[in-house]
Amino acid sequence: MKGKALKYIIMLATISIAGVFLIQFALVRYSYRLSENQFTESASVALKEVAWQIMLATGTTANFDSITPVEVINDNTYLVNVGVAFDDELLVPNLVEQLKRHVIYYDFEYAIFDPTEEQMEEGVFMTTGGETQSSDYDFPVNESYTNYFAIHFPDRSAFFNTRLSIWYFLTGLLVIVVFFFGYTLSVIIRQRQLSEVQKNFINNLTHELKTPISSIALASQVINDKDIVKEPKRLLNYARIIQDQNARLSKNVEKVLNLASLEKSRIHLNREEIKLADFVNDTIEVFKQSNNGQKSNISFHFHPNNPVVSADKFHLANLVSNILENAVKYCEKDPEISIILAQDKNTYQLSFADNGIGIPREHRKKIFKKFYRVPTGNVHNVKGFGLGLDYVYKIVKAHNWKIRVDENSNGGSTFTLTIPA
Predict the structure, then answer these.
(1) Is CATH 3.30.565.10 correct for 271-420?
(2) pLDDT band at 384 (very low <50, low <70, confident <90, very high)
(3) CB 333 within 8 Å of CB 296
């Protein structure tokens, strides 16, 4: 799938998902308002019936049609104008009965207005189980009413949860669908990236293998000439070419085989006590004997007195060599590498600072992935497979160490290895 097509798919998918969520939100909001209206209507009918029953019990129903029994203060609070004197014994049984008849099974608070004191009596909180206690709710009053009571529903969430449960379920289902859609899309993107990386790896591998093979074939063809024995210097030169290209070919094959062995099984570490400063010094000396090492200037400074760490000598040497090799390969001037070993609290910090071309911030976390190489457009002046830093990361992880990459004042990169003391 082409890059532009994938971008359009992601953009359209994002717009579609946003639209679905907006519609879902609008529907849930509408359902919530509808549930509020249903509750208010049910509560108003029930309270109107309470007023009627009280008036019926006192024999004063004649003026029922001339009053407005229920005043909605807000969604949770109501005033009920009865028009006749009444008390708790008459109010509570009717109140409980009518609320149940209209399927309002929720805790409530109520208070009766005392016309003598011209204020509300002490409020009462009543649970669905019939238990009562004092209420501290500040009930509203109405100066135009004489005999009335106020009722307050502190928590109506159960009412809404019952009616909106299907919407909650559908919303949850939508979230799950969106999650799996997003996950599938991320897998597609990762697979596409991996495909690109693997394609670049195969191209690099083909080039790295074909070049020495072609050189060896050419040199062998020249050596096959009978007259070459008459030119011993030329013969020696082509023999050296075959030897060098064979070593290059063997090194590349060894990298690929090492990658395969690391993929098949976990890295087995032969840990032993190592004097870190001496070990790094020895590794530097070995590196200086290589083609890359001969053209580099490496300095090593350490502040702790040759600390001892537990590590695998073979893998640690390869780790240091890989970092040094990259520092030389990715440098467009005379390579300068500064290695510093320092102690920070309970860790040792082994840093490698170079004066190379540097690594852009957006690529620093990706360079430790297998096959990944920092894009350089159509210029491929540095050969490689993108395996070196992947190997470094695997060794660091196997030792339970940490590694990070930063920029430095020379414009290059600084690799810092953190080792527990």
Answers:
(1) yes
(2) low
(3) no
